[in-house]
User: What shape does this take?
Amino acid sequence: MKCPECQEVVALVSRFLDRDLPDDICERIRDHLTRCPSCVEFVNGVRKSIELCHACRYTDPPRPLPPPEREQLWQAYQKALAARRRAMEARRRELESRSAGDRGH
Amino acid sequence: MLEFLPTASNEPHHGSYWATGPPVTHGNLPCYHNTTVAADTATETELARRLLAGERGAFDEFVASYRPRLFQYTYLMCGHREDAEEVVQETLLKVFEKLDQLREPEHLKAWVYRIARNACLMKRRKSTFAPAQELSLDELVPETQQTFAERNVEIADRTRLPEEAAIYNQMSQILHRCIERLPPIYRIVLILRDIQELSTRETAEVLDISEDTVKTRLRRARLAVRDQLNHHLLLGKGSA
Assistant: This one.
């Protein structure tokens, strides 16, 4: 892995796999990969470990949400919604009074 | 237009985890994150709007969608199940308490993860489980400086074996250990990008860093994980 092209693959492998490189650089890397088995293996290795990370998302779920904890969240949500409604109502009244004031002038 | 690239030999690779799978090309690679992000964001934005409007079902949908993801994230960040479950509950509670502060529904995911990140930091400060000393990324790189070809590890491709679930489970556990050993600044980027599948922009938003910094840290984290996975597998092979 001493040649500059191999070093470029090592430097850009992450962005290459994310398709986050300009087309010309992508093309250059792909061209190099047709000639360099070590780099193919390297890129495949990184790709495999990313795939493993993706799959890791679906393992080991948390315990089911206990009803008291759900209730705690629900109460916080209801409180936030009530505060939001009050704020929107206050805003509506403010706009109405402004508009009435404009008409009065 | 996109083609398969030739691999090292014309023979199919059987029996090597890292060398197997389709040859490297964008044609057959899943595009990590970019293609799914737009659809994902639209769904998240809609959920945020429904949640803010107090629509029926939005609360349960949000909890069902975010709780497992946040648990995975906090478990990997805290390293302990009990801590993780506490942090998830604290995070969700904060999310609902601060819901009126969510100004832009399209930023729901980044906003939630930002709260989770802060909850993890708080827990870490208080936790007796926090390590006395963090490792640097360089310390994690295996001592043997082998070539990539020498690092080829003979472990079967899980998709080709009947006992794939067991092997896959084992690989997942090894991966968890590798991720847990990463220094926090790299660990968090890897978890957000490659496990939670946040976009670069969302990750930058959660961590309050630039997108370039996200990319740099992600690259280092991915290479460190790959090196560690190889190292683990080589050790396992040696002791087998």
In short: The mean pLDDT of chain A is 90. Chain A touches chain B through 54 residues (CB under 8 Å). The two ends of chain A are 80 Å apart (CA to CA). The first helix of chain A runs from residue 4 to 17.
